[in-house]
Amino acid sequence: QVQLVEYGGGLVQAGGSLRLFCASSSGRFSINSMGWYRQAPGKQREMVATITSGGRTNYADSVKGRFTISRDNAKNTVYLQMNTLNPEDTAVYYCNARATIWGRLEDSDYWGQGTQVTVSS
């Protein structure tokens, strides 16, 4: 089973920074990509940043130039460095992994428990 544990959220003032961490369990599966998604109150969950096992990254337009996603494949860990935070970044941030369980026909998405990021004015 793919299990994701994340931490690093908190309360910061506008202009501040936070770094999120997410670690995946090890097992009989292959992780194709990992990423960060967020959901603000009353809003749909949206993609923030993703990274493939080969290191290709993708960012939401709203965070380009401010957030950086990275990963350590050997440790099954993904990070999100968030700089120049603003109140619009306030949300629950969820770690995501797209993985294929060995022996199954297709991949699936797995999610962390979420970590709250609150940016005050």
Task: Tell me what you see in this structure.
By secondary structure, the chain is mainly β. It is built from no helices and eleven strands. Strands 2, 4, 5, 6, 9, 10 and 11 form a seven-stranded mixed sheet that branches. The chain has a four-stranded antiparallel sheet with strand order 1-3-8-7, with no helix packed on it. A hairpin with a 4-residue loop joins β5 (about 45-50) and β6. The model has no long low-confidence stretch (mean pLDDT about 95).
Which spans of ≥5 residues are poorly predicted at pLDDT below 50?
none
Helix/strand/pairing category: mainly beta
Shape: elongated
Strand percent estimate: over 45%
What summary fits the major beta sheet?
7 strands, mixed
Total strands: the figure is 11
In DSSP terms (H or I, runs of 4 or more residues), the helix count works out at: 0
pLDDT averaged residue by residue: 96
Ends apart, CA distance between termini: 40 Å
Order of helices and strands: EEEEEEEEEEE
| Helical residues, percent | under 10%
What is the C-alpha radius of gyration, as a whole number of Å? Answer: 14 Å
What's the topology here?
Blueprint: E1 4-7, E2 10-13, E3 18-24, E4 29-39, E5 46-52, E6 57-59, E7 67-72, E8 77-82, E9 91-101, E10 108-111, E11 115-120
Parallel strand pairs: 2-11
Antiparallel strand pairs: 1-3, 3-8, 4-5, 4-9, 5-6, 7-8, 9-10, 9-11
Structure characteristics:
mainly beta; seven-stranded mixed beta sheet; 121 residues; 11 strands; four-stranded antiparallel beta sheet
